[in-house]
Amino acid sequence: MLVHGPLLAPDHALSRSLVRALPDSVTERLSDLGNIPVAVPVLVLAMAYAARRGRLLAAGAAGLAMALVPALVIPFKEWTGRPGPLEPWAAGYFPSGHTATAAVAYLGAALLVRPYTRRAWPTAVALVLTGATAVGLILRGWHWPLDVLASLLLCTPLLLAVAWADRVGRIRGADPVQPGQPPK
Known about the structure:
Blueprint: H1 8-18, H2 24-32, H3 36-52, H4 56-80, H5 97-117, H6 121-140, H7 145-171
C-alpha cells in the first residue's frame, strides 16, 4: 500500500482547501462527465465518423486506447490501495478511473474529429470536458489532486498512440484528409 511520500502532504493540504468549494450538485454533475455511459458514446460517435471517412486505423487505435483504460487503472488502484479524501476507510482511489475515461474519450474523439474541422475547437472542448471532470472529482472529494494528475499522465501514452496511428494512416494514404485539401 503506497500511502506515504513527499507529495502526499501538499496533496492533502490542497484537497482540504478545495473539497466542497462548490455545491455537491455542481461537482457531481462535473464528475459524471467521466462516467462510461457519458464519455464513451462520444468516442464511439467520433470513431464511427472517422471510420466512415476512411480513417480505420485511427478509429481502431482510439477504441483500443479506451479498452486499455481499465487494464491500466485497475492494477494501479489495487497496488496502491490509496484511501479517498472523504472515505479514509475505503481504498482504490489512485489513479482516477473517471479522469482516465474522460481524457481518453474526449481527447481521443478530438483527435479523430479535428482534421475535418480545420480548427482547434474539438481539442478545446475535449480539454474543457476532461478538466471539468477532474475538477469535479477533486472539489466533490472523490479524488485527491494527485489521483487526477496520475490518470492524465497514465493516459498520455494511449493518446499519443492514437495520434501516431492517425499519422501513419495519413502517410499510407488511407486517410482521405490530406493537408491543403478540403475535407470530403
